[in-house]
Structure of DUF1572 domain-containing protein:
Amino acid sequence: MNSASQLAKRFREVLLEGFWIANTNFKDQLTDVTWKQAVTKVDSLNTIAMLTFHIHYYIAGIVNVLEGGALEIKDQFSFDLPPIESEEQWKDLLIRLWTDSEKFASLVEKISDDQLDDVFVDEKYGTYRRNIDGMIEHSYYHLGQISLIKKLLAHQ
C-alpha cells in the first residue's frame, strides 16, 4: 500500500469507519445525535454542530484544492455555522460531511508519493502530506471534544 492510500485509510478511520485509534469515529459519534442535541450549548464549549461544521469546512476547502481549485478557506470563517433549526438541516450537514469526507479520501488515494512531498498551494502551508496529516490530527482532536460533549449532554 502506497503512502497516499495509507493516508486515505487513516482519514476514513477518523471520519467514517474506523475504531482503531479512538475506538470510535465521527460517523459513529454523530449518527445518533439529534439536531437539538447538536445545537445545545454546554458551558463555554462549542456545540457539536459547530465542531461538525468546523471540520467539514476544512475538509471541503482541501477537497477544492485537490480537485484543482484555489485554497479559499480562511480560519476566521471556520466557525461561521449558519443556524440549524431543524432535524433536516442537521442531517444535511452530516450528509455533506460524509460525502465530502469520502471524496477527500478518494482524492488523496490518487496522489502520487512524489506529489505528497510537493508544496501545498504555498510554501507557508508545507506539503500535501503535512496538510493531509494535519487534517487527520485536527479531526481526532475535535472527535474527542464531540465525544466528551455527548457525555456531558447525557448527564444534563
Notes: The longest helix spans residues 128-154. The chain has one domain: 3-155. The mean pLDDT is 96. The CA atoms of residues 43 and 99 lie 31 Å apart.
